[in-house]
Amino acid sequence: MIEAGQYDMRTGAGLIACPRCDALHVEAELTEGETARCVRCGHVLARPREGAFTQIVALSFTSLVLMVAAVFFPFLEVSRMGIGNATSLFGVAMAFSEGWLMPLTVAVLAFIVGLPALRAVLLVYVLLPMRGQGRPARHAGEAFRLSELLRPWSMAEIFVIGTSVALVKVAGLATVSLGPAFWAFCALIIVGAASDVFTCAATIWDTLEDRGAFTDGREVVPDPETAAHDRQIVEGTPPAPDHAA
């Protein structure tokens, strides 16, 4: 751990890189309402917002509820000449659950349902205990790192776009009615976009570090002694022995 305002070019401690142009900046502690932008391209590096953790948690719970509706409610109904059939996303996946199409079922459930739901659960696990002045949960740093790694692989919006293109072609052959699960997926995309707007990774990392959660050992904290004491409380480790005597 190092104090705010210091940095180490060898390890990268105290520095933050712009995710768009890779320009290096000295990491600084921000207060709520302040915004840190890249001096080269103007990309927002950090933007603490009051109540952002509570909003992200609420949006994550909303995503989980919408995901349940999107999976088990009727997704669409296809009818022709008075004969129709309605199915859900879970029913479609189970239709390919036998034989050599089993990997397709696993891929559908994992990328469209499993990963977005897992990411929402991880965000709740990380941010729910830290609302207000709460301390982070055990392994909160690892959980948030995993949620960031899963972000590019959450493909609910890709699924909706692909389904819409397919429905345009099917509509010429039969009557297609969209079920509540389709609109739940559309709402899920909107909620996910809103969650990404409120989520500032740099702010969450700073909060985890300031409240004693272990990240990568290169934390920038206002008071290293206080941060070390908080880390002992979070990790449940006994305090280091005092050899001053």
UniProtKB/TrEMBL annotation:
Spans through the membrane: 52-76, 108-128, 155-176, 182-205
Domain of life assignment: Bacteria
Biased composition (Basic and acidic residues): 216-233
Pfam families from the UniProt entry: PqiA
Region of interest called Disordered, as start-end residue ranges on this chain: 216-245
Coiled-coil spans in chain: none
Keywords for this protein: Membrane, Transmembrane, Transmembrane helix
Record's protein name: Paraquat-inducible membrane protein A
